[in-house]
Amino acid sequence: MKLKLRIWRQAGPEAAGKMEEYDLDGVSEDMSFLEMLDLLNERLTVEGEEPIAFDHDCREGICGTCGVVINGAAHGRSASPVPTTTCQLHMRSFADEATIDVEPWRAGAFPVIKDLVVD
Q: Rounded CA gap, 71 and 6, in Å?
C-alpha cells in the first residue's frame, strides 16, 4: 500500500504544533497502525529526521496507551463494528493511496507532551 500521512508534530508542551505530510510506500495491509508508524519512523531515522513520538505499551489491545485520533475518530474506525485500540487497527481498514490524518488525543486533561504523546 501507498499512503499519504498527515501527522501532528509538536516539539514540546510549549511549542506550536502543526500537521506535517509524509508519503509512505510499502505498507502491508496486515500491519497494525502502530507497525505502520514504526515503518515511517525507521525511514525518518535513516533520513536523519526526528522520529514521530507516540505512546504504546502492550500492543495487544489491552492497555489503551496507544490512543490517537485517526481521521477524526478516537483510535480510528476499523472495518469491524466492534471498537478497537490503535494497536489492533490494521491497515487493511484503509484504501490504497488513502490520506490519513493522525493527531494526539487532545483534551484539557491530556496536554500534548510531544507529537502524538499526551500526559
A: 10
Number of helices (H), then strands (E), belonging to the chain: the values are 1, 7
- What the block records as the C-alpha cell of 45 is 531515522
Could you read off the pLDDT of 11-38 as tens digits, one per residue?
999 999 999 999 999 999 999 999 999 9
Q: Which helix (H) or strand (E) holds 44?
A: helix 33-46
* Residues whose CB is less than 8 angstroms from the CB of residue 75 and which lie 6 or more positions away in sequence, other chains included: 66, 67, 68, 83, 84, 85, 86, 89
Strand 112-114 to strand 117-118: parallel, antiparallel, or no bridges (unpaired)?
Answer: antiparallel
Residue 33 — φ and ψ, nearest 5°? -60, -40
How many whole angstroms separate alpha carbon 29 and alpha carbon 18? 28
Q: Is the pTM of this model over 0.85?
A: yes
Determine contact, residues 3/100, Cβ cutoff 8 Å.
yes
Owner of C-alpha cell 505499551: 57
